[in-house]
Amino acid sequence: MQNGDRTDRTFNKVVGLKYEIVPQQNPYDLKVGDYLTCKVLFEGKPAPHTLVKVWNRVRDNSFMQNIYTENDGTIRFPISAAGPWMVSSVRMIASEKEGAEYHSLWASLVLEYENSEIPTCCNSLFILSQFKGTGNLF
After folding, report:
1. Fewer CB within 10 Å: N-end or C-end of the chain?
2. Where residue 51 sits, what CATH number does that domain have?
3. Stretch 107-136: mean pLDDT, rounded?
4. Where does the pLDDT of residue 17 fall: very low under 50, low under 70, confident under 90, or very high at 90 and above?
5. What is the pTM of this model?
6. Sequence-separated contacts (24+) of 115-120 with Cβ below 8 Å
7. In the prediction, which pLDDT does 118 show?
């Protein structure tokens, strides 16, 4: 998380959750037209060939791209418009609990770019990981 203009290396800290999305460069240093690279980790290791959904909202419209991670667990996509963005992925694994067949792991990265001459990220970068269940993603 970042607040204000001062940046550090917190953005790419691996937290150690079972399923994570980690930006590979500081999202606050990017502007519309730049590319963001993220790495998807499962149990601390790169997750190759994993479906990742990249969402962005422009005015009243939401747009979504399906991108599969490369062999090294990374995806790369352009920040094509100002507004809110979300990078998300869900991984289903066999459940170890009796009475449940699957366990879902959710990983998300949420950020926003302002609509200005030199766009900058908004106040916060949230890394939300390991959600269970279903719900409205965006």
Report:
1. N
2. 2.60.40
3. 52
4. very high
5. 0.77
6. 115/82, 115/83, 116/82, 118/31, 119/31, 119/32, 119/82, 120/28, 120/31
7. 35
Residue range(s) defining the domain that contains residue 75: 10-131
Please report which confidence band the pLDDT of residue 8 belongs to, taking 50, 70 and 90 as the band edges. confident
Give the Å distances, CA to CA, from 31 to 49, 72, 82, 119, 124. 27, 25, 8, 5, 15
Q: Is residue 4 part of a domain?
A: no
User: Residue 18 to residues 28, 84, 126, 129: CA-CA distances in angstroms?
Assistant: 25, 26, 17, 8
- Ranges of beta strands (E only) in the chain are 19-23, 35-42, 45-46, 51-58, 61-68, 74-78, 83-94, 102-113, 126-131
State how far the alpha carbon of 62 is from the alpha carbons of 41, 57, 129, in Å: 26, 4, 22
- Report pLDDT digits (tens) over 75-113: 999 999 999 999 999 999 999 899 989 999 999 999 888
What gap in Å lies between CA 25 and CA 21, rounded to an integer? Answer: 12
Answer left, alpha or beta for residue 42, where phi above 0 means left and psi between -120 and 50 means alpha. Answer: beta
Q: What letter represents residue 60's amino acid?
A: D
